[in-house]
Amino acid sequence: MSADVYYANGLRNIIPYLSKRSSYAKGRWVGLPLLTVLTKEFRKQGPDEYLKGIKSGRYKIRRGDRFLEVQDVLELPIEHKDIIGMTTHNHEPPVKQWCTSIEEENSIVEGKIGGIDIVYEDDELLVVNKPSGIPVHPTGQYYLNTLTEILKKHGKLVSPCYRLDKTTSGLLIMAKNQIIASKLQEKIRVHDMTKLYLARVEGQFPKILEVPTDLILTQEMILERIMTPALKSSVDSDIFTLELKKQFPAGLSPSREAKTDFYPVKYIPDLDQSIVLCKPLTGRTHQIRIHLARLGFPIVNDHFYNLRHSKYPKRSRFLLELASWEKSGLPPSTLKEKFDQLEEELREYQNSSSMQRNDEVCEICGSDLSSPIKLNELELYLHAWRYSDNENNFNFVTEIPKWIE
Prior knowledge:
Largest sheet: 11 strands, mixed
Oligomer: single chain
Radius of gyration: 23 Å
CATH topology of the domain at 17-90: Structural Genomics Hypothetical 15.5 Kd Protein In mrcA-pckA Intergenic Region, Chain A
Structural class: alpha+beta
């Protein structure tokens, strides 16, 4: 699969393209008509467009050795072992442009591949400095506009050993074979890997005045902070994830223990902001972002956990204020009521966004052609800076990000 790329307004765009894929029906789809699943699960188009797609044969159900007739697809509920076939006209969201088109077209040139900095490479590993604003691997609406697919264009078939959020930049270790991937993932799982991140947060971080503020930071100066236990602040609070696509209580994941240590690096008085060194001791989703916000120092440009910027403030508060929904003492009825409020908040935001869109739609699939992506929402002041294991077999570090000053 390939598609044409163009750059505009600081964004890397993929020209829409057709693709076919099929998959077994997920358990939560069983018992529901395909139209209901498409409308609720994907939310890329409205019910009318999905209905047209079913009638035109772009969405099918294979049951046993045959495809169901269109009328049966519309009327019969999905069953276990059904195969859902989709021919979609993909409108991938844009990602943040990290280099020029000429630089991206080049393979390895002066320590870069596709315009992305190479930190280290051998026969088993490729370590890069991931730009902010691009997903690591295909997920959701993203496929070609992902780091692994871009590297594949340059002949690098690699698998990430851990995930970084789309908006997070920094050190990404990728394996060229499954053996080394499993070895690194096991080290991370048993906490035999020290991970250090840099963040820029709002406010005067605890103990920040005990470190110099008027010096240009170096790698060595930042690393010294972690050698001073008296500077450490720790957050130890559970974290759970939320999936509004699922019903209550399945949409609430089990709460899991999470702990992060923080060290002050530098205070910026004019902006009342701080640079913080972050050492996660567990590996939960959005752990650093959540713990900084719970501590009262959210990342400056976090468009979810910084409540001044959040599009979904009720959802953000729910995840920040409720460390463990199982231990909260709230009865199931109250949790269900809160879950319903979060669903309503999402619907209200989607309706508000659709009212602000233009009337231009795609002639092929009916998708709205207005772009909801804003460039400033594709960068987060959180950077994976250094990874090392206890035996020092793996020890990688990136450059300090520009926003640190």
